[in-house]
Amino acid sequence: MVVFAGQGDPRRSMSLLWRSAEAGSRPGPKPGLSVDAIVDAAIAVADEQGMSALSMRAVGERLGRTAMALYTYVPNKAELLDLMYDKVLGQLPTEYPSDQGWRAALTAWVGDVRAFYLWHPWVLQVSQARPVLGPNEFTMLETLLRILRQTGLERSVLRGVVGVVTQFVRGAAEVIADARRAARETGVSDEEWWYARSPLVEEFSAPFERQFPLVAWLGELDPPAADDDCTPYLERHAEWNFTVGLEVLLDGIEAAVARSVG
Amino acid sequence: MVVFAGQGDPRRSMSLLWRSAEAGSRPGPKPGLSVDAIVDAAIAVADEQGMSALSMRAVGERLGRTAMALYTYVPNKAELLDLMYDKVLGQLPTEYPSDQGWRAALTAWVGDVRAFYLWHPWVLQVSQARPVLGPNEFTMLETLLRILRQTGLERSVLRGVVGVVTQFVRGAAEVIADARRAARETGVSDEEWWYARSPLVEEFSAPFERQFPLVAWLGELDPPAADDDCTPYLERHAEWNFTVGLEVLLDGIEAAVARSVG
DNA sequence: TTGCATCTCCTTACGCCATAAACTAACCTG
DNA sequence: CAGGTTAGTTTATGGCGTAAGGAGATGCAA
């Protein structure tokens, strides 16, 4: 489902992303649609039915048009994806308190971004191969940098840190988003799925504890504890991994800061 | 392009993954193919032409058959993907020296896994939503755990660490793999792509340095230094991010170890 | 006012994709 | 040799993105 934009006219892409509308009075029928309306409709489809349901036909239908009508406003599906991506990024918060240190602010940012990804899981499926170069993508990076600047790390190290942090949030959100998507698209919950397979692993792998002692010890094969908590199995794991992982990451950054000062 | 397996018979999936062949003499024509032959052909197609070229038709053609012939051996494309995934994971090394500490071993493991992902980039496109539960997936985890056991971290923390580390390698490889895929599928190199867009960003965003001072400072907009080095622009950045990120991660784990000891 | 260029939006069509259904032909067992 | 089972084919269905061409609306110049 991953598609690449940017094979078209770069100037056209950019002017769409930054919405430099010229308009003026022109011949021909008045446009019944607009880029914004199309992008909004596309976002709505993706939010409601997931990326796999996002087709030109579906977007057109939501606007009471055919698929082909969209091509008057948007060069192709890949560009539409880029527009959706940048527009929805605009929902991210941009202000974080700077008086409690970078650690608190970064924790808040990571939490917000992860929540955002889980709110619009399809965003995770937009290729990160090449930056979209839209205004909101830059804004997101600027926000992160305002927080990380407080570490006082030098530029080249900061670049690396930006990389790990963004990768971490994406990864943390992806685990959950993928699990939810799987549950929705297959109609099988994590629990059902697991209970159907867990005994089979034991059966086919002969003595599992002998073949994979450490995996067995880690308890990935344990059935989910039947808590009052109704959060799905995999998500409970993911939640914990997120907490631990974030701490590891923050400690690592702190170490880098300590090294750069000392 | 992400597809989910596991909507079929779990027992069938498992017996395919663990290759519990019954065979015996049966009526009907001799099978001209085998699950292994199909999986190998599919891996070859994915390696050579990428995941987007992996269709049942393509695999069948490579074996001199039609697409439909494969369905005798494999229930559907999603299951085939799982089989490809687990089989190719078998190429990963499993032994790492334990006499130089976990840090050295983990560094080597992360490097190997990243190299592996870049060798078979399509692996990154197999959904991680639910574990495949094949033998080689367990082996990979077991290998990582043999290394991480040396940290002496308690089980629950270790689970978190496993999560961050695997997410980190995936992320680090994805950046590069996506970039290469984009270059291949669009026929536009990173450099060409960048030179076409860089000036346009300045043009459309009015005073870029005023709007995004920190982004400008970070120099993401700098044109790539024209080194003797012929590694593409984005990959050079990625390489650096990988090094810095890994160090941050290792330091973070070390902090966790120190905390658990003290 | 007319004619035309231009624009929106539609219909149609092409070539992909996964896979369901029905068929042919090979083969083992009774 | 008959019957049932299996491997592999052909054909068809309903999806996808989007190229091509046409119909009707609109603003402007003559």
Task: Provide mean pLDDT of chain A, rounded.
Answer: 89
Strand content of chain A: under 5%
Question: How does CATH name the architecture of the largest domain in chain A?
Answer: Orthogonal Bundle
Q: The biggest beta sheet of chain A, please?
A: none
Q: Secondary-structure element order of chain A, as H and E?
A: HHHHHHHHHHH
Number of domains of chain A: 2
> What form of chain A results from the Cα inertia axes?
flat
- Radius of gyration of chain A from the CA trace? 23 Å
The largest chain-to-chain contact, stated as pair and per-chain residue counts, equals: A-B, 91 and 91 residues
Question: Structural class given helices, strands, pairing of chain A?
Answer: mainly alpha
What does this structure look like?
Two copies of one chain form a homodimer. Chain A contains eleven helices and no strands. Chain A is an all-alpha fold and 262 residues long. Chain A has two domains: 10-89, Arc Repressor Mutant, subunit A; 101-189 and 232-261, Orthogonal Bundle (Tetracycline Repressor, domain 2), CATH 1.10.357. In chain A, α4 crosses α6, α5 (101-119) packs parallel to α7 (155-186) and α7 (155-186) runs antiparallel to α11. The longest helix of chain A is centred in the middle third of the chain and has 32 residues, at 155-186. The radius of gyration of chain A is 23 Å and the shape is flat. The model of chain A has no long low-confidence stretch (mean pLDDT 89). At the A-B interface, α1, α6, α7, α8 and α10 of A face α1, α6, α7, α8 and α10 of B. The structure holds a DNA duplex (30 and 30 nucleotides). Chains A, B: InterPro entries: Homeodomain-like_sf, HTH-type_TetR-like_transc_reg, HTH_TetR, Repressor_TetR_C, Tet_transcr_reg_TetR-rel_C_sf. Chains A, B: Residues 55-74 bind DNA. Chains A, B: GO terms for molecular function: DNA-binding transcription factor activity; transcription cis-regulatory region binding.
